[in-house]
Amino acid sequence: MSRKDTVAVGHMSGVPPSSSSSSSKMSYEDLYHKNQKPKVDCLIFDLDDTLYPLNSGIAAECLQNIRDYMVEKLWIEKSEVEELSNLLYKNYGTTMAGLRAIGYSFNYDDYHSFVHGRLHYEKLKPDPVLRHLLLNLPIRKVIFTNADRIHVAKALRKLGLEDCFQGIICFETLNEPNGEFFNERNLFDVLQHSVSPAPGVELPKTPVFCKPSEFAMEYALRLANIEPGRAIFFDDSVRNIQAAKGVGLRTVLVGSSHRIKGADFVLESIHNIREALSELREETDKSEDIVLRQSNIAAKTVTSVTA
Ligand SMILES: [Mg+2]
């Protein structure tokens, strides 16, 4: 199966059905009828620690599972694992990408089933407020995560959000399945390199496509037919936000109250998504570039993006 074949888990249609009022929906459609492309036509969401809070405990479990995998499956010295995993995460975006770069090879499905398959998903609770918010945004919504598709499906189901997105870009979307375990004879000593890099020696490149690689992000956007200038990107990772900005997306850092370089807006919780949409609407309204209309539909927490 080609990478493109795995782009969508669910539909990748342009405009999703909406439970919003007919008037707001009509406004959106009116723009199409007038051949006026809406300035924002896609919202892109990270999954972990973005659609649910960091304090769920899932992130801590993941980290421990990764370290256990390194010891139990790759036979890395336990005393080195913490420093090595931190270093690889810092340099490659994910520990897995870093492990592959320095010469470890392993079956991706095996890795994911070890790291994600053992998570206590009962820690994730249904979030009807977020579900209501998402379903009432008549605009295409896509998940973009470095995690595997099984994890995405399980997490969305636990959160009660499985029908809120029109597409999913996940690990399998960007990476081909790989083979069995083997390690290069000469693993790259990244710990030594971090202390005293040899002259002219650079960190090896990873074969894994993932955020925050701008190359991987541009590839993902092309596969999902997302125009960066018309999309808003939500993520809890500062590096991912800055990379997203680098590829031309408008950005919202989630789970923080501190504005950082590269973030157009900051949200402490994804529940406040309408704050970000309103802010971005005001910015673009000033230049008469965008039509985003909020509607008080049913619950007062609902925002309707009409263009
Ligand atoms: Mg995240």
TrEMBL record:
Residues 263-290 form a coiled coil. InterPro entries: HAD-like_sf, HAD-SF_hydro_IA, HAD_sf, Pyr-5-nucltdase. It comes from the Eukaryota. Keywords: Coiled coil. Residues 1-28 are annotated as: Disordered. It holds the Pfam family Hydrolase. The keyword Transcription does not apply. This is Uncharacterized protein.
